[in-house]
Automatic annotation (TrEMBL):
InterPro entries: Aldolase_TIM, NMO. GO terms for molecular function: dioxygenase activity; nitronate monooxygenase activity. Pfam families: NMO. The lineage of its organism: Bacteria, Bacillati, Actinomycetota, Actinomycetes, Pseudonocardiales. The keyword Glycoprotein does not apply. This is 2-nitropropane dioxygenase. Keywords: Dioxygenase, Flavoprotein, FMN, Oxidoreductase. It comes from the Bacteria.
Amino acid sequence: MLRTSFTEVFGVEHPIVQGGMQWVGRAGLAAAVAEAGGLGIITALTQPTPENLVKEIARARDLTDRPFGVNLTILPSINPPPYDEYRQAIIEAGITIVETAGANPAPHLPSFHEAGIKVLHKCTSVRHALKAQAIGVDGISIDGFECAGHPGEDDIPGLVLIPAAAQVIDIPMIASGGFADARGLVAALALGADGINMGTRFMCTVESGIHDDVKRRIVEATERETELIFRPLRNTARVAGNEVSREVVRLLDGGATFDDVRELVAGVRGREVYETGDLDAGIWSVGMVQGLIDDVPTVAELIDRIVGEAEEIIGSRLAGLRADRHSA
Ligand SMILES: Cc1cc2nc3c(=O)[nH]c(=O)nc-3n(C[C@H](O)[C@H](O)[C@H](O)COP(=O)(O)O)c2cc1C
């Protein structure tokens, strides 16, 4: 067992979080992570309406008695979803942990806290982490440049971002982006984090409800096969390298506008990839860490393996490196 300030404050057994994932973070996956002792998270906006989110939460409750969280991602949008209604649905459903991401969570924080909900805010820079700490979130998830999804515009990888944030953050802090195994967990703890958040690794598990061909592709792919789209629009997203993402990069680098690529990047096309396994149907998120993934375990196998091997690395391999042990 690894105990950290994160496991204490958020009331989970292991310092491992399954971050919000559009089209992937559904009840089955979140419940499996909760059952295995991690923090599983349902992605609110994967559900078309707040009412559907309430049903998805009920579905997860049928699968586990353990607590799980809900992710609320607030991204710039021409037609924003009804965030306040999703927030209300989360509160009324009795959820106790929320992961916020994408923007300053200040407008939502008082309502969540009044309802006794702990807020884990995911951000990609030390300044945003400091801001979130100052407004009173309960934990930080700091997402390095390696991550799937939105890495921000600073391009600071975890090896620098995590210790830089740890130096100034006093509340529990989870390291995110590029984690898939025990080596990563131990490294994150050494860098000053209180646990890890994983997206891509959890996508590639038995309980993740995406098509097997997508999981197979993640197992095959190397760390070099992601693309950063929307760089010129300063809304960068790390996605799988495929025909569509390469075309989007080519068009935007050539001066195209968002309107010119709108159809290519449509969310429904991304959803089709996960549902049908057609890897070139649209844009789909995945991280560089796919290069470290070579199997499709159950969530319980994965979490047990990470925790068990982390204990072994800390107690045996690292402890064995101490010079006094050699001279004894
Ligand atoms: C398929 C997929 C969809 C994602 N969608 C979201 C999302 O809707 N909201 C969010 O905050 N993060 C999202 N993320 C980011 C993850 O929560 C997490 O921060 C990221 O995957 C960490 O990097 P890793 O993939 O290297 O573990 C997504 C990631 C993936 C792989």
